[in-house]
């Protein structure tokens, strides 16, 4: 595989509202039959939904992405990645539009997933915010430490005290936040973001009644106490929050949008071009054009080049070689973990193909 693939819209139906901002960003009209529950666009996905009818896997021209990767793993992912991580990207990228506040929830880490969910991947995630309404807020981590019985009581009550227990963070376009597995969190209404995540989107829905989710869905089919044991109950301090945050709009040339700790799970490279061309290394990269217009060309003789503009979403294979960007344009390249990163733990069948609510 050496050619750049434009990614078509892939918006499985979800339990919460949103999607209009994704269509506007992509430059697409709102369909006449739009149901208001298409808040996520799954980009280069090898992942199925955990519930809500399955679906989610990306289709390329004539095949699905997992089959394409199996047919040419080194062309897509590079020999070093395949040797260290196998024939899976280890990454799911989304566009997410919160048409309403999402529920308070958390995601298990890799050790919990191996032990209880027969899977090598947990779900650490990151939010790269590309649009936000005035006053938009997200919440991450408990403001004060909380005992196991207190958490159980809050989950049983299903009221606003769950949200009130978290750290509120006012956000604007340009913010980036790493959300480690285990940290309870919620995304407020009016945010458009690029989300990078481990590919197995297991979610423990601490707040679920107001969204009509049954307990089997909310707690991953596990006993409630077992599921709640995956939640980080320690206080997340202001210093801890600061270590999880970046301003991706401060990058000039090419640089990381995320804290260094993210590289074990995924990488997000901002490339900002302002007249002088910028060349970046070969990588399997979900490339989201967030601002401006320009041209993307690749090193490979068959890779060709194409004009790009804000709202374009492309999948660039490793085999295309170095990528050259020209014009006045900003892109975010969403990439798998570094080849130097440790592989996911062994001991359970690895899968990119199970997912739940974001």
Shape type: globular
Major beta sheet, specifics?
8 strands, antiparallel
Q: Give helix and strand order, one letter per element, not per position.
A: EHEEEHHHEHEEHHEEEEHHHEEEEEEEE
Proportion in helices: 10-25%
Structural class call reads: alpha+beta
Whole-number mean pLDDT:
93
Termini distance?
30 Å
Strands, total number: 19
Please report which band the strand proportion falls in: under 5%, 5-15%, 15-25%, 25-35%, 35-45% or over 45%: 25-35%
Q: Unreliable runs, pLDDT <50, ≥5 residues? A: 348-358
Continuous helix count: 10
- Rg, Cα atoms, Å: 19 Å
Task: Give an overview in words.
With 358 residues, the chain is α+β, with helices and mostly antiparallel strands. It is built from ten helices and 19 strands. The strands form four sheets. Strands 1, 13, 14, 15, 16, 17, 18 and 19 form an eight-stranded antiparallel β-sheet that branches. A hairpin with a 2-residue loop joins strand 3 and strand 4 (63-64). It is globular.
Keywords:
358 residues; alpha+beta; eight-stranded antiparallel sheet; disordered C terminus
Give me the secondary-structure topology.
Blueprint: E1 5-6, H1 20-26, E2 40-43, E3 59-60, E4 63-64, H2 65-71, H3 73-77, H4 79-85, E5 92-97, H5 110-116, E6 125-132, E7 137-142, H6 148-157, H7 161-164, E8 166-170, E9 175-179, E10 185-187, E11 191-197, H8 215-218, H9 224-228, H10 238-243, E12 245-247, E13 253-256, E14 267-274, E15 278-280, E16 285-298, E17 305-309, E18 313-316, E19 323-335
Antiparallel strand pairs: 1-18, 2-5, 3-4, 5-11, 6-9, 6-11, 7-8, 7-10, 9-12, 13-14, 14-19, 15-19, 16-17, 16-18, 16-19
């Amino acid at each position: 595989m050496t050619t750049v693939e434009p990614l078509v819209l892939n918006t499985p139906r979800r339990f919460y509202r949103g999607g209009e901002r994704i269509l506007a960003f992509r430059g697409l009209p709102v369909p006449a039959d739009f149901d208001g529950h298409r808040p996520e666009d799954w980009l280069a996905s090898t992942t199925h939904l955990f519930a809500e009818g399955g679906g989610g896997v990306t289709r390329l021209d004539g095949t699905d992405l997992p089959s394409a990767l199996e047919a040419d793993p080194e062309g897509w992912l590079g020999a070093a990645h395949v040797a260290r991580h196998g024939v899976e990207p280890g990454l799911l990228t989304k566009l997410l539009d919160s048409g309403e506040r999402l529920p308070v929830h958390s995601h298990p880490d890799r050790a919990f997933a191996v032990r209880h969910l027969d899977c090598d991947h947990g779900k650490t995630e990151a939010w790269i915010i590309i649009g936000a309404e005035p006053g938009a807020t997200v919440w991450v981590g408990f403001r004060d430490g909380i005992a196991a019985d207190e958490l159980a009581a809050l989950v049983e009550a299903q009221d606003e005290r769950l949200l009130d227990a978290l750290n509120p963070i006012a956000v604007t376009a340009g913010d980036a936040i790493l959300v480690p597995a285990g940290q309870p969190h919620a995304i407020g209404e009016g945010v458009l973001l690029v989300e990078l995540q481990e590919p197995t989107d297991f979610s423990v829905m601490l707040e679920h009644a107001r969204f009509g989710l049954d307990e089997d869905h909310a707690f991953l089919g596990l006993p409630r106490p077992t599921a709640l044991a995956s939640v980080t109950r320690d206080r997340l301090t202001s210093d801890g929050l600061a270590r999880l945050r970046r301003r991706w709009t401060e990058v000039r040339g090419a640089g990381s949008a995320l804290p260094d700790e993210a590289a074990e799970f995924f990488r997000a490279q901002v490339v900002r071009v302002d007249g002088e061309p910028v060349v970046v290394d070969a990588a399997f990269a979900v490339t989201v054009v967030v601002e401006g217009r320009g041209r993307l060309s690749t090193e490979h003789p068959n890779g060709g080049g194409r004009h790009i503009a804000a709202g374009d979403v492309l999948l660039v294979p490793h085999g295309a070689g170095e990528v050259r960007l020209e014009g006045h344009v900003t892109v975010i390249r969403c990439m798998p973990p570094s080849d130097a990163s440790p592989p996911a733990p062994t001991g359970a069948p690895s899968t990119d193909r199970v997912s739940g609510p974001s």
